[in-house]
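User: Okay, second chain of the day. Same drill as before: sequence in, structure tokens out.
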Amino acid sequence: MDSLWGEEFNIQPTKQVAKKIKKKIEDKKPVEVSVTKTIKSKKLDLDSKLNIIQSEVNRILGTYASRTIVIDSLEKLADYIDHAIYNCYIAIDTETNNSLDPVTCKLMGVCLYTPNQLNAYIPINHIDKETGERLSWQVTEQDIYNQLSRLDKTNIIMHNGKFDYSVLKCTCELELNIYWDTMIAAKILDENEFSAGLKQQYIQKIDSSIEKYSIDHLFEDVEYAILDPNLFALYAATDAYMTFKLYEWQKEKIEQPENISLKPLLFDLEMPLVHVLAEMEMNGMEVDQEYAVRLSKTYHNQLDALDDNINQELLKLKPKIDAWRLTEEANYHPAKKNGNGLSKSKSEQLQNNINFSSPTQLAILFYDVLKFPQVSRKSPRGTGEDELKILYDKTKSPICKYILERRGLIKLLSTYIDVIPDLAKKWPDGRVRTHFNQYGAATGRLSSSDPINFQNIPSHEKRIRMLFKAANGSMIIGSDFSAQEPRLTAFYSQDPAIKAYDEGKDLYAVIGSKSFNTTYENCLEFYPEGTEIEVDGKKVICGNKTHQNKDGKERRSMSKSILLGVLYGRGAASVGEQIHKSREEAQKIIDDFYGAFPNVKQWIDASIV
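Assistant: Same drill. Structure tokens below.
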């Protein structure tokens, strides 16, 4: 048939083709510019952006308007607190000026909910967007302190209470006693919770019919302070209501007979710990800036020296590299995967000044130029830490050793030495801080993160730990639990074999002797005092911890991995990977361990709830 343009085209006269064309036309959706894309446009002025925010918030959260109140006077605030005191329960949430740092943030408002009252938002530091002046009708931080201090006998419920506690203390000098943290309780009830976020928990546990909304993107690059408090209340005040409803659901769950043993964990351990961690985060650690300058110079000098060593090695290898560049292998251009042209040859990829940070260039140098053997099935041309260590053991090539040392130095510089002093300068008091995650792992162990991990400061690099110093008139005390896990295991399991702890013996060595069917002395890290050994062909008598027992240290280390593995629920495959044994070998060692310590097995089985 002829088209409108006079060109001829054909459509197969079949029902199947016709249906496909019809469906394609019917399914075609109009092109819409997303709100997210629009609001991020740099061409959009502030008023237009605020209009979009207002429209979207009303569209998504407008149904909550009848259930939300903005507290705009001290009298209304006092009345709301009166109701909370009468109810004995209140949920509290804070809003800051787009900041997640309690120490430096400004308190924008407080959200409250108590039963039989509306969801409340208390604006504190909203401003007139035209003049920048604070809205005069708002209550003050002092009002918040005076009124919320009255809640000393009221059960206070928060979600991620550590943050809200810190915000209120830093902005209002208010210390609240948190009764229940719904984020912590969510993890206690189910340690495998994928997300303990408030909205996710509320939708999952309380009301799955409500729209899963996320409007945070609307406020990107927009100060909360300039938003109309009545509009912002719809976004903020709902959180306190959700927190309270989630608390009610969790309380019912934790009161059930099968969960009753979780109550002491929540009230006796986790809730008191919230305040402790909050204080630790707010205090931070002081950094010795003068020492930091000297330390950075020292390590950068080491890096320069390593680079010189590597360059010297490359100079020695230059004739071999030049000869290789003339080969057919070096100049072969393989076809690109997409079929469009040819890829660079290996000779072109290997720069004259080799980039030590490039895995591709190192792989060409090691496996093509130097013909090093492949040492990993998973990564036959690998240049990672594991592969380089094995390559050095096999080839004794200094360049492998130097690159490993170089990577280690760069990691220390980029993670600690050059980073920590700069981070500390971002806080007014010059102290660096971290976030302590109360349930950072499924096992319940604490973790530390953002902006640095305080739990990962290298112990083998004492000079890096000296970056931190005590304030004037104070001191830093370092302490560690010695063999904490076996001591607790010995106490709780009451296994006769582990009671050797009472005799002052090394528990890991005791476990090793039973697991590997050898003597206690053969599982010690150091030869016992008075032991006669041969060193460099001469017989010597060992003093107290003067000569290390290599095989004993290895057995002790494996014993530690075995015990921690079984206590934390690792399988044979995971334990085997840690002690460099096959799954079958690891399973036998675990079975032997349980055979040697039957009470431990019974205690572990009885402890699982």
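Residues 1-9, 28-32 have pLDDT under 50 and may be disordered.

User: Thanks, on to the next one.
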